[in-house]
Amino acid sequence: MNNPILTCALLIFLLPLAAYVVLALFNRRIPRRGDWLATGVLGVCLMLSLYVFYAVLQTPKPLLVNVTFDWLPMQVGKAIAGGLMVDRLTAVMLVVVTLVSLLVYLFSVKYMEGDVRYGRYFTCLLLFSVSMLGLVLANNLLYLYIFWELVGLSSYLLIGHWFEKKSASDAAVKAFITTRLGDVGMFIGVAICYFQVGSLHYADVFAAVETGGLAGSWRTIAGLGLFFGAMGKSAQFPLHVWLPDAMEGPTPVSALIHAATMVAAGVYLVGRLLPVFDPATLLVIAYVGGFTAIFSATIALVQDDIKKVLAYSTVSQLGYMILALGVGGYVSGLFHLTTHAFFKAGLFLGSGAVIHAMHHEQSLSKYGGLRHKMPYTALFYLLATLALAGFPCFSGFWSKDAILADALGFAMVHPAHAFLPFAGFATVFLTAFYMFRQFFLTFTGKPRDHHAYEHAREAPWQMLVPLIILGSLAVVGGGFGQWFGAMNPKRSGIEQIRSFSEDGYSNPFTVKALEQADAGAAPASHAGSSEHAASTASTASTESTASTPETRREGTNTDGHGPDTDRRGGRALTVEQEAAHKAHYPAMALSTLLGLGGILLGALMYLQRRDGTTALNPATPATRFSAVYRLLWNKYYLDEIYMAGFIMSTRALSRLIALFDRTVIDGVVNFFGWFGVLWSFLVDLADRWVVDGLGVNGSARVVGYAGEKLSYTQTGRVRQYLVLMIAGIVILSGLCVLAFWGS
Amino acid sequence: MNSYIAIASDYLSKAAHFLGLTSDHPAGLHLYLIVAAILFVLGLVACMARRNAIGILIGIELILNAAILNFMAFWRFRGGMETDAATMAGPMFGIFVMILAASEAAIALAILLNLYFNFGTVEVDSVHQMKR
Amino acid sequence: MNPYSASIPVSWQGSNLAFWVITALVLLSAAGAAVSRSIVQAAFCLFFTLIGMAGYYVLLGSGFLAITQIVIYVGGILVLLMFGILLTNRPLQREQKGAGWLYLAAGVIGALLLFGVLARIIGTGPWVEVQNLTEPKSEVHVLGKLLITKYLLPFEVAGMTLLLCLVGAAYLVRRRER
User: Fold this and answer.
1) SS3 breakdown of chain A: % helix, strand, coil, rounded to 5?
2) Looking at chain A, which subunits does it touch, using at least 3 CB pairs closer than 8 Å as the criterion?
């Protein structure tokens, strides 16, 4: 193991695992239940991740570590392999995960102080960190799936932290079941990959896609299946229903899992496995993302709970990321993932500080004027809000803008899909509005609940420091974007395979794919994916065809923004990329306009003037469009629809089956049981009558009777005895004589 | 009448032949055996017919005597007297039987006397206390 | 002439008559002992039967046994029986024939049947007769020697038996406290 990166990667995974084991077994016996151990380990992991990140920056190699080993030897067929990899995407994800985790752990130390299950909380947090890091480090679908499930499990455990509350345990179950539903699809996808490709390594799957081993409807179904899993984890419509309920968990958990990392796992999966999705699937992905973004933003407009607003906002932003990936903006989607992690976590932690200060009061209608009491919190919350709303020059602005540019560019090339950018821009307006509604209601104006307001204090340093860090990152993270684009160009399947094989990974599939690519033959799934000059010609030729996002996946770079990076690698851009590039400035302008418009509307409706009233009364639209208001307030009655549709029918079915079990099966069993009872009854009868009566008692009675009757022979008369004796002798001797008469 | 006599005598002579009771036979073994058998049977009759306990004893003595006679007859006519180192089985048996008869008679008398002292009578018919 | 008579010593040939006479005596007195009415009569008949038996033993060649018969049976056992009769003789009780005739009948029938059986056995037996001829030289001497040598065990046992009977009889009729 002479590769320091590999060592770091292994340590990053194994240290939290070791800490988890220690805490799981001994947390009651170590001081402070081991929170220092958890936080310390995460701190070390952060250091290691930063080192890895630094190393990644230094080297031009796209893939740094790729280790595969036989994990499960099988009697029949190949062994099942496992492995880990470190490439640039991994490095970025590692930093994000470890940084946000560390800050959340620190925050939790104060927030969860005195909690009844403090030790269990940190244990589950560590389990989550292990799972998330494993997910990011995996280099094959199997490990991805394993850690995917583990992450889901950790989420369940953490949402249900206060499981004595029925709402919390119900929410945990709902989260688990809903994501599990997505996982079914994901499993189908993984299984199809395995059976079509024969291996689960990313490189092999990409190679199969390139060489046509995984093509046609199999590829579509596999892609849809995998995306279904991502939908579940990343709370896309219609599997988004669990995320708002997941707010029952502690706020740091919401910050870590349901804002920054776990829900990002779906986006990560789509990004990682982008070569697998065929154009139809990608379109589906884009629409799902776009629809979710606008759908959930509308719900967030009317929510009263501070955390619920943030939850729906998370769903909406995830929709953005999915949309970006669907239209081919690999860099923009993943960049938004990182910036969103920072500011959303900051927002959640800030709301946690507010909730903590207001003694666990979460309703916006009870807040007000908190900036006087918690100035720092208010400041950094404001920074994060501005980032989320896409205020110019904040990190969110850059990432959101990149997405919008990509969407707009895509729509310009394919005008049929104009919905996508429309959804994106509409959501910008809505996002700005509801975020500032929340901000104004919480931190400005007159306090509505005076009693709680009196007791509110600024958050302690353990809670403030993460907030400050995240808020700052929300501001400056935009500069990151250039790096991101440079570091993580979206590479085609062939390029990824090539980078794998450069690191020494070889497999019949990859060899074949590379041979094909080098020979210049056009693979079945691509319209000319060979390198360099050939690609330009082929991409040009596909321009006029009914082009699909497929063609964008040529071996070219795309990046966040900036005019001087588009020719990196010396490859030409695809049509969509060109369009996106051109649409960049209009998108920026439009999004800024819409964002400011949203902020303005929010201010008009919720920012109180000196006399305590607002310019526009928020109650007016509520009453005038009361039907719409109620629809939004009830989250489009989606939960009720699910309940009636799926849950009730499942319950009815299970009742039916239970009825069948009770009557038919139990009837059969009872019949046999009755039969056994009957049999034993008969046997008992036989035993009592025949054996006892006849045999035992009968023989005794016979003997007694016989004896009684025979006793009459005992007359005591000697002469009679004599006579009988003589008679006996006579008879016996007579018989002897008769027997030997002949002789 | 004569014919009946004739038939009867015919049967008798047949029986006599059968039993070996003819005059040209000297007193042979089976004669003695017949006599012993008759004695035995008469002893049995005496046992069964007599009410007095001593009468039963008399019957038993008759039986024993018949047995001795049987033994003696067999000794005499089966070569017991041949050699010098004679087996003398007949007389020997006779001696032992007589010894036993004597001792048995003594005990029987003792029992009889007890019977007499307890019940005041020696008639076996009146002594049936040992009934069921 | 039978084939055997040539080898019979003369002294034996007169035994036929003696045999029949003794037979008549024995059988008649035995019948009397069986069916006579009073017990004394029966005892007397028994006396004659025993005498007759002694005669038989003489005829059969063992004078010793004849004398022993007289001494023991007549002089001992019969005397004992007589004593018994004397001691237990009640003034004549009316002999209830009513109760006893059934037993008598059954006894007679059984006895006859038994006689039939015995006769059949005797009649059909392949008896080999050896009319042997020499008189024993000294019967008593031989008997005595045999008792000590060949028949020692029965001799001892017989002695033991006698002793036991003596003791037993004496015990049985001991005087008891009334």
Assistant:
1) 75, 5, 20
2) B, C
- Residue in this structure with the two tokens 């969103």, named with its chain if needed: A340
CA distance A337 to A340: 5
Find residues 62-91 of chain B whose CB sits inside 8 Å of chain A: none
Interchain contact, A716 vs B128, CB within 8 Å: yes
Instruction: Indicate the pTM of the whole model.
Output: 0.62
Return the residue of A nearest to B43 by Cα: A726
According to DSSP, the residues that pair with A305 across neighbouring strands are A363
Q: Are A108 and A125 in contact (CB under 8 A)?
A: yes
For the segment A134-141, the average pLDDT, to the nearest whole number, is 91
| Per-residue pLDDT tens digits for A655-705 | 998 888 888 888 888 888 888 899 999 999 888 888 888 888 888 888 999
Subunit contact A727:C111, Cβ cutoff 8 A: no
Residue A283 has pLDDT above 80, yes or no: yes
CA-based nearest residue to A401, from A336, A495, A356, A342: A336
Averaged pLDDT, A9-14? 90
Is some CB atom of chain A closer than 8 A to the CB atom of B128? yes
Q: Do A350 and A377 meet the contact criterion of CB atoms below 8 Å apart?
A: yes
Residue C81 pLDDT grade (very low, low, confident, very high; cuts 50, 70, 90): very high
The pLDDT of A543-571, averaged and rounded, is: 35
Between helix C15-35 and helix B29-49 the angle, nearest 10°, is: 10
Distance (Å, rounded) from C-alpha A395 to C-alpha A388?
8
Ordered DSSP codes for A67-105: EEEEEE--SSSSPEEEEEEEEHHHHHHHHHHHHHHHHHH
Interface of A to C at Cβ within 8 Å reads 719-720, 722-723, 726-727, 729-730, 733-734, 737
pLDDT digits (tens, 9 = 90+) for A178-207: 999 999 999 999 999 888 888 888 888 888
- Interface check C73 vs B, CB under 8 A: yes
User: Least CB-CB distance to B130: which of A716, A722, A726?
Assistant: A716
**ipTM of the modeled complex:** 0.83
Nearest CA in chain B to A723: B48
